[in-house]
Design a protein that fits this description.
Length: 311
């Protein structure tokens, strides 16, 4: 297996026009902790994660601001930047000391669709704790899924330039490949690419301590008044549980747990037919996947492509 320069998903940055409302949802209901910020930006951490923050919210037109990945060392950051630039990838910034909370060393660049990505190392970790039994708060960020009108090309870009590997594919007899599950470590997926009408966020997923905590968290969010889009159930690809909700900016967010950890050298990707009911939900407990449910995660058109966020 080729050595990867990316080690893990670090955080997701979103721009939202209703910052106060969205921040309050994630801190008062979703279970994240505000660790830094001001009137126009908020940095939110998970109590169980050493990452300085796992979600960044900025007041602006709705978009994906950036997706941040970790690297093991400054040497790997420099090597990633040099390799990407040599391949013609457009850099936003060159490797440098970071001025965001936690500091570190990193750089930003555009992926093939125009999303802003970041690779960083040496970010200060935060004091975190073990999540208690039955405590319904996220342990960490699990994965980010994006929509792409050309998912085949997007998949190839992440494989070629960032060393992601394909874990599994969702497939339809009438529409072809519907979703690619991509990994940068032994977790089944930290990133995925869905076929959509435009580039946008499909969903962001947050890992819970276990099934008991995931189910209690699902009930907690239902009682908060947030709309459940799909769930609760258990996927086939990744073997993880799911419960999808809409946040106050109409981004789809998920509580999950029990994501499969792969023996990478022995793993062979499968094509899973979305027409098979157990592909979507092994348990049969969720509402049936339909065109109306799928449309919820198409999200609004992302107007931030090839426009780097100011922070």
């Amino acid at each position: 297996m080729t050595r990867r320069l990316i080690t893990h998903l670090r955080y997701l940055g979103l721009a939202v026009p209703n910052l106060e409302e969205v921040r309050d949802f994630y801190t008062q209901h979703w279970g994240l902790v505000a660790v830094d910020g001001d009137d126009d930006i908020a940095y939110l951490a998970a109590a169980g994660s050493p990452e300085n923050y796992i979600l960044r919210l900025r007041r602006a037109e709705k978009r994906i601001d950036l997706i941040s990945f970790g690297a093991a060392s400054t040497t790997d950051v420099d090597e990633a930047a040099a390799t990407l630039e040599a391949a013609g990838v457009r850099l936003v910034t060159r490797p440098q000391k970071l001025g965001t909370p936690g500091g570190g060393y990193g750089f930003r660049f555009f992926d093939g669709d125009g999303r802003t990505l970041e690779i960083s190392s040496d970010v200060t970790t935060r004091e975190h704790r073990t999540i208690d039994e039955r405590e319904p708060v996220p342990v960490r960020i699990s994965h980010v899924v994006v929509n792409s009108p050309a998912p085949e090309a997007t998949r190839c870009w992440y494989e070629e330039h960032l060393g992601f590997a394909l874990s599994d594919t969702l497939w339809s007899k009438t529409m072809g490949d519907m979703m690619y599950f991509m990994r940068c470590n032994a977790l089944h997926h930290s990133f995925a690419i869905a076929r959509g009408p435009h580039a946008s966020l499909h969903h962001a997923s947050f890992e819970m301590r276990g099934i008991e905590e995931w189910m209690r968290g699902t009930g907690k969010i239902l009682r908060s008044g947030a709309r459940m889009v799909w769930g609760p159930g258990r996927h086939n690809a990744g073997d993880n549980t799911f419960a999808y909700f809409l946040d106050p900016a109409s981004n789809t967010v998920e509580y999950t747990t029990a994501l499969k950890v792969l023996e990478e050298d022995d793993w062979h990707p499968s094509k899973l037919d979305v027409a098979d009911i157990e592909t979507q939900d092994q348990w049969g407990t969720s509402n049936e996947m339909s065109e109306l449910v799928a449309r919820e995660s198409f999200n609004d058109v992302d107007h931030g492509l090839f426009v780097a966020p100011p922070v």
